[in-house]
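User: Study the chain.
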Amino acid sequence: MNACKKTIVVFSVATFLALIFVFLSVPWAGDLEPVDPPGPTMHTLEQIYSATNSQADRIYNKPIWKIWGRPFIDWPDNDRFALTVDGFLPGGGILWGQMVLDKETGLIWARNAYLDVSKPWTVAIDFCRRITISNRQGWRMPTAEELASLLDMSVQGSPKLPSGHPFENVQNSYWTSTTREGDSGDAWNVSMTNGISGYIGKGTYRYAWPVRGGNGYATGNW
């Protein structure tokens, strides 16, 4: 065997051994545990509900968000929002829950925006901390930026919320947790009537709209 043939044979053997090494080093899917991405994950009703639940498949066979083990179905009138589902009504209707996911910000809001009468700022802060909604605690008052993020100034009339929003009993003006810079006696509030944000004395009576998630940072709260 001449030198050229020997070189070809050696190269072929080396290539073959390299391919075997690469093949054995590849992790196969069957050997790995599935990893869910962080945050809300998309599922379909077939994955959440039993295949025997024909009513669920018939009504909303569409993607939904699954958070804290609870399904949040896209709101049919504005898919920026998704709501928890508490069950299904006779005849095929959905019994919507009381938690609303805003997919634009990732915040969870109380669907009912009138959970109690208007109250001073400090009482409103305490009210949001103590409330239980859909068996969940850990609620708080939104910051000025968070509450304003719900506004849609292109909407004609009141409230200035996105068209087709799912919220109920929206009142005219709400406290935020944000204290006025330079004057701890004032706090910011947001008007749902005209979309204007401004500050006012903390002894004034305004409504509280609980939110969950986010970092909740606000100046002068503690």
